[in-house]
C-alpha cells in the first residue's frame, strides 16, 4: 500500500532564512509518529509548510499526501483532503462563533467526501457527544473562536475540532505544552480515539510526556532542519534522559 | 441677481452656480408655498447665500476629505418630473418584510400618493408630504424649518457662522429648491406602533435630476416614533439626492431613525440630518450606506436639555470607486447627556471611506458621557480610509473618549479558518461579518434588522475573489 505521507528532500525558508534543510519522512496509514527536537530546529515550520501557511516558501523537494502533490494545494484543499493542524498557539477570532465556524468546516469536508451536509440539529448532536468525551462544556460552541479561552481550553478546543473533522493525518504542534496532567490525559484520550488503520498522526513535541499517553510507532529527531535520527518509542526516553545537545553538536559538525 | 466672484472657484463651478440661479429666478413663483412671504424670502436668502459661497471646496475643514468637483460640474435639474412607470409591485423589494409600515413613496423627489399608504390618522401621528403640509399648516412648517435653528435663520450668529454657512451651502441650495419631503408629527405621549417608512426612488429621465428633499420629523413630549428612510436608484446614470432632515424630540420623546442608502451607481447622495434633542429625549440613528458614487451622511445633533441619550451608528460599505463620507457633530449643551457613537467602514477596490466625528461639550454640560468609535476594514491594497475624531471639551466633570482603527483582514485568522477547510471567500466573509460585530444584531426592530441583514448579505455576495 502507498504510504499516506511522503516527504522528500524538503527545503523551506521563512523571510529569506532557510529553516528546513532536506527533510525525509514517510508516514503510513495507521501510524503515529513523533517529531522531537530542540527549539528552533524547524518543527513548527514543518507543520506550517504541510498545512500551507503563507510566507513559508518551499525551495526544494516534494510532499505527496494520499497520492497527491500536497504543495500544489491551497490550505483549504489540504484540509479537505484530510490534513488537520492543531495549532501551537490557536488564535482568537472575536465575533466568529465556534459553532458557526465549525459547522461550515464540517460541511465543507462532508461535501468534499460526497456526504450530505449536517443540519443544525445533527451538527449539535455530534458536537455535544465529542465535547462530553473531552469533558468540555457545551458553552464552547456559542463562544467566539478561542476568545477568552485559557491556554488549556484552547488546546482542548483544537482536539475537539479535530474530533469533529476526523482527519486522515493530524499534525499536532506542541499540543502538550501548557497543559496540566489532567488536561494532558484528556487530550491524549482524544488523540487515541482518532487512531485507526486509515489514519495517522504527526506529533510535534519538545518533551516526551505526551508520548507516555499517546505511544508513537516512530520517533524522529529534528535538528537544524533535518531529521538526524529515527527510532522507536524508546528514543523519546533517551532524549528525555540526555537532552538534545548531542544532536545539535552532531549536526553542527556535519555542517 | 449677480454672482459675486469667489477666489479659487473654477469657471465650471461658476457656470453651474449661474445655472442654478437662473433656474431659481424662472421657477420662484411656482415653487411650493410661493405665496407665503416668509418662505419666499427664506428661499431668496438661501439662493443668495449659495451664490455667495458656491460649492464647498476642499479648503474647508469639513470638506477636506470629500471633493465635490464632479458634483459641481453638472447642473442637476432641480424640478425633474415624477416619472411614471413605477407601480406598487416595484416597491416590494424596498418594503419591510412584514409590511407593517406607514408608507410614503417619493419618486424623483416628489410624493406619489398613488404609491403611498400613510395610514389613517389616529394613534396621534400625522404623515404627509411637505408640499401638502405647506398648504395645510404652513405655520408649523415655518416653525420646524426656521425655529429648528436652520443655518439660514437669523438666530445663529457667532464666529463660526461664516464657516458653517460655507460648508452648508448645499443645504441652502436645498432651501431654495425644496419641493417635497416627508412631514411626520407625533402628538405628545402618542406611541404609534407602526414605523413610518419613507422610500425615495430615483428614476431619472434623460437629464440628470437633482432631488432637493426636505423632511421634518417631530416627536412631541413623551412620544415614541420609528422612522426608516430608504433611498434607491432605478438607474445607473448620474443624479443627485440632496436631502435635509429636521428631527426634533421633545422632552422625554424617543425616536429610532434608520436609513438605508442604496442609490444608483452614478448617484451623488448628500444628506444632512439636523437633530434637536430636549430634556431626557432619546434618539437612535442608524445608517447603512452602500449606494452611489459619492455619498455623504452628515448628522448634527444638539442636546438642548439635560439627560439626553443619543446613539449614532452606521455601516459604510464601499467598493469600486465609491466615496462614502460620514460626518457627525454632536453638541452637548446641557448636563448629563450620553453619546454612544460607532461607525464602521468596509472598503474594497479603490473605494474610500471618510469619518469625521466632532463632539463638543459646552462649559455647563457636566456629567456628559460620550464615546466615539470608528473602525475601518480595508479589503484591498488600494482601498482608503480617513478617520478624524475631534473632541472639544469645556467642562471638567465628564467622561469622553474615542477610538479609531484602520486595518486589513487578519491574515492569521484567515489561515486558521482555511486550515479547517473553509473556502477563502467564506473565511473572508465570516471575518468581515465578525468585524461588523453587533451593529446589525443590535437593531431592536425585527423587520428593520432583517432589512439591514439582507442588504449586508447582498453586498457581501458581490465581493470579488
Characterization of this structure:
The complex is a heterodimer of chains A (255) and B (465). By secondary structure, chain A is of the alpha/beta class. Chain A has helices spanning 43-51, 75-81, 98-112, 120-133, 151-165, 181-193, 234-242, 245-254; strands at residues 5-14, 17-27, 32-36, 56-65, 68-69, 83-86, 93-97, 144-145, 169-173, 200-205, 218-223, 226-231. Mean pLDDT of chain A is 92; it is low at 251-255. Chain B is an alpha/beta fold and 465 residues long. Chain B is built from 10 helices and 19 strands. Chain B has a 10-stranded mixed beta sheet with strand order 2-1-5-7-9-11-13-15-17-19, with helices on one face. Chain B is globular. The interface between A and B is medium-sized, with 31 and 23 residues.
Class from secondary-structure proportions of chain A: alpha/beta
Task: State the CATH architecture of chain A.
Answer: 3-Layer(aba) Sandwich
CATH superfamily label of chain A: P-loop containing nucleotide triphosphate hydrolases
Number of helical runs of chain B? 10
Report the radius of gyration of chain A as a whole number of Å. Answer: 18 Å
| Topology-level CATH name of chain A | Rossmann fold
Please report the total strand number of chain B as a whole number.
19
Please outline the major beta sheet of chain A: 6 strands, mixed
Strand order across the largest sheet of chain A: 6-9-10-3-11-12
- Strand residues, percent of chain B: 35-45%
Order of helices and strands of chain A: EEEHEEHEEHHEHEHEEEHH
> Number of domains in the coordinates of chain B?
2
Largest interface: A-B, 31 and 23 residues
> Number of DSSP helices of chain A?
8
Number of domains of chain A: 1
> How far is the first residue's CA from the last residue's CA of chain A?
36 Å
Amino acid at each position: 500500500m502507498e504510504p499516506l505521507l511522503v516527504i522528500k528532500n524538503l527545503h523551506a525558508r521563512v523571510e529569506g532564512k532557510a529553516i528546513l534543510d532536506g527533510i525525509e519522512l514517510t508516514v503510513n496509514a495507521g501510524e503515529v509518529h513523533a517529531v522531537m527536537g530542540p527549539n528552533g530546529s524547524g518543527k513548527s515550520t514543518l507543520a506550517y509548510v504541510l498545512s500551507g501557511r503563507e510566507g513559508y516558501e518551499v525551495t526544494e523537494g516534494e510532499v505527496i499526501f494520499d497520492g497527491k502533490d500536497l504543495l500544489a494545494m491551497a490550505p483549504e484543499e489540504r484540509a479537505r483532503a484530510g490534513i488537520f493542524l492543531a495549532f501551537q498557539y490557536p488564535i482568537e477570532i472575536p465575533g466568529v462563533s465556534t459553532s458557526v465556524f465549525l459547522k461550515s468546516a464540517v460541511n465543507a469536508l462532508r461535501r468534499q467526501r460526497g456526504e450530505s451536509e449536517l443540519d443544525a440539529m445533527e451538527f449539535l448532536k455530534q458536537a455535544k457527544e465529542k465535547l462530553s468525551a473531552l469533558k468540555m462544556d457545551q458553552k464552547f460552541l456559542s463562544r467566539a473562536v478561542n476568545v477568552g479561552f485559557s491556554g488549556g481550553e484552547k488546546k482542548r478546543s483544537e482536539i475537539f475540532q479535530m474530533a469533529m473533522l476526523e482527519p486522515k493525518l493530524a499534525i499536532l504542534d506542541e499540543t502538550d505544552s501548557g497543559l496540566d496532567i489532567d488536561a494532558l490525559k484528556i487530550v491524549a484520550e482524544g488523540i487515541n480515539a482518532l487512531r485507526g488503520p486509515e489514519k495517522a498522526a504527526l506529533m510535534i513535541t519538545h518533551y516526551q510526556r505526551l508520548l507516555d499517553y499517546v505511544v508513537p510507532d516512530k520517533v524522529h529527531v529534528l535538528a537544524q532542519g533535518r531529521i538526524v535520527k529515527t527510532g522507536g518509542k524508546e528514543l523519546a526516553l533517551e532524549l528525555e534522559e540526555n537532552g538534545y545537545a548531542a544532536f545539535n553538536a552532531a549536526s553542527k559538525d556535519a555542517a | 441677481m449677480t454672482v459675486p466672484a469667489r477666489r479659487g472657484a473654477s469657471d465650471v463651478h461658476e457656470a453651474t452656480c449661474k445655472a442654478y440661479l437662473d433656474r431659481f429666478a424662472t421657477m420662484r413663483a411656482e415653487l411650493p408655498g410661493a405665496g407665503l412671504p416668509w418662505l419666499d424670502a427664506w428661499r431668496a436668502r438661501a439662493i443668495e447665500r449659495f451664490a455667495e459661497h458656491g460649492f464647498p471646496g476642499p479648503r474647508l475643514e469639513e470638506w477636506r476629505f470629500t471633493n465635490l468637483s464632479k458634483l459641481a460640474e453638472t447642473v442637476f435639474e432641480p424640478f425633474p418630473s415624477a416619472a411614471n412607470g413605477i407601480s406598487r409591485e416595484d416597491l416590494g423589494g424596498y418594503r419591510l418584510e412584514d409590511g407593517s409600515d406607514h408608507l410614503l413613496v417619493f419618486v424623483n423627489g416628489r410624493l406619489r400618493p398613488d404609491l403611498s399608504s400613510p395610514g389613517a390618522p389616529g394613534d396621534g401621528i400625522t404623515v404627509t408630504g411637505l408640499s401638502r403640509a405647506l398648504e395645510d399648516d404652513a405655520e408649523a412648517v415655518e416653525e420646524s424649518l426656521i425655529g429648528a435653528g436652520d443655518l439660514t435663520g437669523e438666530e445663529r450668529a457667532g464666529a463660526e457662522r461664516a464657516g458653517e454657512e460655507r460648508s452648508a451651502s448645499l443645504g441652502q441650495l436645498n432651501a431654495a429648491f425644496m419641493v417635497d419631503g416627508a412631514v411626520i408629527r407625533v402628538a405628545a405621549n402618542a406611541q404609534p406602533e407602526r414605523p413610518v417608512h419613507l422610500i425615495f426612488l430615483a428614476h431619472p429621465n434623460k437629464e440628470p435630476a437633482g432631488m432637493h428633499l426636505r423632511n421634518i420629523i417631530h416627536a412631541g413630549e413623551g412620544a415614541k416614533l420609528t422612522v426608516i428612510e430608504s433611498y434607491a436608484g432605478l438607474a445607473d446614470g448620474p443624479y443627485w439626492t440632496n436631502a435635509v432632515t429636521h428631527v426634533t424630540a421633545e422632552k422625554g420623546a424617543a425616536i429610532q431613525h434608520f436609513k438605508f442608502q442604496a442609490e444608483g451607481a452614478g448617484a451623488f447622495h448628500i444628506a444632512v440630518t439636523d437633530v434637536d434633542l430636549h430634556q431626557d429625549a432619546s434618539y437612535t440613528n442608524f445608517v447603512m450606506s452602500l449606494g452611489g458614487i459619492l455619498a455623504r451622511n452628515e448628522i448634527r445633533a444638539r442636546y438642548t436639555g439635560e439627560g439626553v441619550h443619543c446613539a449614532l451608528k452606521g455601516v459604510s460599505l464601499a467598493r469600486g470607486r465609491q466615496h462614502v463620507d460620514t460626518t457627525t457633530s454632536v453638541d452637548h449643551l446641557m448636563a448629563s447627556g450620553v453619546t454612544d457613537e460607532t461607525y464602521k467602514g468596509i472598503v474594497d477596490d479603490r473605494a474610500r471611506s471618510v469619518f469625521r466625528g466632532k463632539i463638543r461639550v459646552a462649559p455647563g454640560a457636566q456629567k456628559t458621557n460620550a464615546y466615539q468609535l470608528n473602525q475601518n476594514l480595508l479589503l484591498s491594497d488600494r482601498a482608503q480610509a480617513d478617520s478624524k475624531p475631534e473632541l472639544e471639551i469645556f467642562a471638567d466633570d465628564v467622561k469622553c473618549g474615542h477610538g479609531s482603527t484602520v486595518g486589513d483582514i487578519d491574515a492569521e485568522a484567515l489561515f486558521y479558518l482555511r486550515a479547517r477547510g473553509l473556502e477563502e471567500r467564506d473565511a473572508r466573509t465570516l471575518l468581515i461579518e465578525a468585524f461588523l460585530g453587533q451593529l446589525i444584531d443590535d437593531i431592536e426592530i425585527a423587520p428593520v434588522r432583517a432589512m439591514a441583514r439582507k442588504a449586508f448579505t447582498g453586498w457581501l455576495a458581490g465581493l470579488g475573489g
